[in-house]
Amino acid sequence: MYSRKPTALHSSENTHNWRFNFGPTRAGLRVFVAEISSSSSFHFIVIIPFYISSIKSQDMSFKRKMFMIAGACAVVTLIILAVVWWIEVPSENKCKNVITGSSEEWRKDIPTNSTKDNIGDGIVLRIVPRDGWLAQPPLNPLVPLDLPVKRVIIIPTLTTNCETQAACTFTVRNIQTFNIESQQQDDIIYNFLIGGDGNVYEGRGWDNRGSFVNAYNDDSISVAYIGSFKKQKPSGKQLNVTRLLLAEGVRMDKLSEDYRIVGTNKLDATLTATSADALYESLKDWPHWSDH
């Protein structure tokens, strides 16, 4: 046995005045642990190296074990500090540079009253851009329209209806795939699509010629309602956002102020597949509606 009295670690009045009185034996270790059990973790970590250095060199096996204990204590302390930091530091400081997948990034520049479906009876125009419904790029460059155009063609997609943005996104993406792969089109054939969720889905947009009715694509904008609408009328929400979309087209000088709205079956009587009596019935009292 030997005694050692190290100098004080701190000069404050709460500083412990340590006195070691043990040797390089397991009994000495027990005494050591007992003496430091009432100290702070900082004192414990600092004092261990002093004790290890005092162990006789011939007891190398025990000395190695002590070094392993010291290393383990240091690792545990670092882990505790990391956990405390993670809990205490505000989340906004930890995630400043993290780009979330909230799927809301693609909604830039879209006026909205909801982060999901367009609730509120379509009182807000909400256009979901192409990347919002995961559109693939056109196979070839699209032909630009000569703006403003004077005709808006209403057409049903003849698919199932959709009531949520998730369902409408899925449907619009499938329509594009069908148009490209089965009909050999360069892109989705419509300029805009109206979903049952009250959102407008951008197809070819205002500036590009669609491919929906032969002989009428050069000077028209197509607005396709997602569904069939032979017996079921479109919702008030769908009709409201259609009004807002067309008013926006006039404001942006994409539509002429005296534009006409017409159904596809009025342009070509042979297009019986596109008949949507309930849809056209809902629009016949609109000021711009035309039977030809």
Quote the average pLDDT. 75
Provide the spatial order of strands within the biggest beta sheet. Answer: 1-4-3-5-2-6
Q: What is the oligomer described by this structure?
A: single chain
Determine the structural class based on helices, strands and strand pairing. Answer: alpha/beta
Q: Helicity level, as a percent range?
A: 25-40%
What are the key terms here?
six-stranded mixed beta sheet; about 290 residues; alpha/beta; 8 helices; single chain
Please provide a written account of the structure:
The protein has 292 residues and is an alpha/beta fold. The chain contains eight helices and six strands. It has helices at residues 26-36, 41-54, 60-88, 91-94, 165-181, 236-251, 264-267, 277-283; strands spanning 127-128, 149-156, 192-194, 200-202, 220-225, 255-263. A six-stranded mixed beta sheet has the order 1-4-3-5-2-6. The N and C termini lie far apart (111 Å). 25% of the residues are buried.
